[in-house]
């Protein structure tokens, strides 16, 4: 891709916008691929792949009929494996290639498959509750289950797991890899967290009695290799240092059970959602300067009208967007403003000045571009009720069409005199104006007195003359006239010139 094309695509990306899309899919979970361009919704009937740059287009479906709810779907976070996706199906974990038109380069076996479903991982004896891709090894996947076990898989050899971690007594409900230490992962068991070292997996290296009720989510800090966060049915969010498993490093008490608590990919922040009672996504900043971690509310993302079932991040350089999915089948895309980033400790003054597009570019990116055939206006033009006087336009930051008031008043006076003379004529015969006869004179009028302007689709401003339109709409013995009104032609030519000067497409 050329540099200019890349810059244009960046300016027009949906990552700069807040969007809401209704997708009629009974999906229970959401993920985003490593490039941030594809969203994946998982349901009983299969995976639904959404182009996040064209989210209003129909999704692509990878079919897999099952009676089991899909509890988890996770895209591989490594760009060379961006098409590889793992989803749960009762006791099993399914491996997909959502980019199945091409194989995953460099590896034989299932990764060279051109089929959408590449393999099934079978080892658990109870339903799989969570999966997690290794942040350092692109072919390593962890799965945990109600059978108390956590299996580690190399997807190049999917026949059996390469390693097993066993809690023996309680179900494993969550699994998460350490973002900074490739040999460490944590699992949740009811209200308890166990920390494992894959180099010696016979027993956990630390056990944290975190909550008195079930843990719904856990996550490792991207800034501190020993810090993790847990959230629970007990309405609390807690921070832990795994080197001091008996000491809570901070606690946030909420008004509802907390479904998810995850660190932000920028600065030092946290995003949380409730398990019930409200549909708000909350952004927090974390203060590590004192002995206790102190969360401070930065922003409430309000808009979902039903329970938020999941959220994920997409990013490009220093631009971030939160993607969320709710129970009422609504996909929302929330752009992180500069104030959000700075409140969470990310310095943006230099980076965003060079990478962030202008407001106008961001607003245009949220709408498709419509192209109109002017020839169709000859017969399909709809007459609108117009004001008695034209409306003057002023310059604004979006570069909307500017007209000079003095020229309008001067030319409008001439048009008004001509109009009164024509109204005095009692002739009943209506003659369609000749386009070529007065085209030169019409072009000299910047905006006729009996005229108007209407937005017709995003970024399209149509200007027209009411007398010209009325004349063209007059019925003849052969039916409706197909001759384009003289004033409409002149105005279109004039507007085209202004469009070119002011950059309105």
UniProtKB/TrEMBL annotation:
WD repeat extents: 121-163, 208-242
A Pfam family recorded for this sequence: WD40
Domain of life: Eukaryota
Gene Ontology cellular-component annotations: Seh1-associated complex; vacuolar membrane
Keywords: Repeat, WD repeat
Gene3D superfamilies (alphabetical): YVTN repeat-like/Quinoprotein amine dehydrogenase (2.130.10.10)
InterPro entries: WD40/YVTN_repeat-like_dom_sf, WD40_repeat_CS, WD40_repeat_dom_sf, WD40_rpt, WDR59-like
GO-annotated biological processes: cellular response to amino acid starvation; positive regulation of TORC1 signaling
Keyword Acetylation attached: no
A single MF term (Gene Ontology): signaling adaptor activity
Protein name (Swiss-Prot/TrEMBL): Uncharacterized protein
Organism of derivation: Thraustotheca clavata
């Amino acid at each position: 891709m050329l540099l200019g094309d890349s810059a244009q695509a960046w300016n027009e990306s949906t990552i700069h916008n807040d969007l809401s899309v209704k997708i009629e899919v009974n999906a229970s979970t959401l993920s985003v691929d490593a490039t941030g361009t594809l969203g994946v919704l998982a349901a009983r009937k299969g995976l639904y792949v959404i182009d996040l740059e064209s989210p209003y287009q129909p999704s692509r479906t990878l079919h897999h009929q099952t009676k089991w709810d899909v509890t988890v779907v996770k895209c591989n976070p490594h760009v060379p494996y961006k098409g590889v996706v793992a989803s749960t199906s009762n006791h099993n974990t399914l491996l997909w290639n959502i980019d199945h038109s091409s194989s995953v380069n460099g590896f034989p076996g299932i990764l060279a498959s051109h089929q959408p479903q590449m393999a099934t991982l079978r080892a658990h004896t109870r339903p799989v509750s969570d999966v997690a891709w290794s942040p350092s090894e692109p072919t390593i996947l962890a799965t945990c289950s109600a059978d108390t076990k956590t299996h580690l898989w190399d997807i190049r050899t999917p026949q059996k797991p390469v390693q097993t971690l066993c809690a023996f007594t309680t179900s494993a409900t969550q699994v998460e890899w350490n973002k900074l230490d490739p040999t460490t992962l944590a699992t949740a068991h009811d209200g308890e967290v166990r920390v494992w070292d894959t180099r010696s997996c016979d027993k956990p290296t630390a056990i944290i009695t975190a909550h008195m009720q079930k843990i719904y989510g856990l996550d490792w800090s991207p800034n501190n290799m020993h810090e993790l966060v847990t959230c629970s049915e007990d309405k609390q969010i807690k921070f832990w240092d795994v080197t001091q498993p008996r000491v809570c490093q901070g606690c946030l008490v909420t008004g509802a059970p907390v479904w998810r608590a995850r660190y932000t990919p920028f600065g030092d922040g946290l995003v949380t959602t409730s398990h019930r009672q409200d549909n708000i996504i909350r952004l927090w900043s974390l203060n590590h300067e004192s002995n206790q971690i102190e969360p401070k509310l930065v922003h409430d993302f309000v808009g979902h009208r039903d329970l938020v079932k999941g959220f994920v991040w997409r990013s490009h350089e220093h631009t971030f967007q939160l993607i969320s999915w709710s129970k009422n089948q609504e996909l929302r895309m929330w752009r992180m403003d500069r104030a959000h980033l700075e409140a969470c400790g990310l310095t943006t003054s230099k980076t965003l000045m060079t990478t962030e597009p202008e407001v106008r570019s961001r607003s245009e990116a949220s709408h498709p571009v419509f192209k109109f055939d002017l020839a169709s206006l000859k017969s399909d033009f709809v007459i609108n009720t117009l004001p008695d006087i034209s409306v003057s336009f002023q310059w604004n930051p979006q570069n909307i069409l500017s007209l000079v008031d003095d020229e309008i008043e001067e030319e409008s006076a001439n048009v008004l005199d001509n109009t009164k003379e024509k109204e005095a004529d009692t002739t009943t015969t209506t003659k369609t104006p000749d386009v070529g006869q007065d085209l030169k004179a019409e072009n000299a009028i910047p905006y006729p007195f009996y005229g108007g302007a209407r937005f017709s689709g995003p970024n399209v401003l149509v200007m027209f003359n009411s007398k010209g339109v009325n004349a063209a709409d007059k019925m003849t013995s052969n039916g409706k006239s197909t001759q384009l009104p003289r004033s409409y032609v002149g105005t279109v030519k004039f507007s085209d010139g202004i469009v070119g000067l002011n950059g309105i497409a």
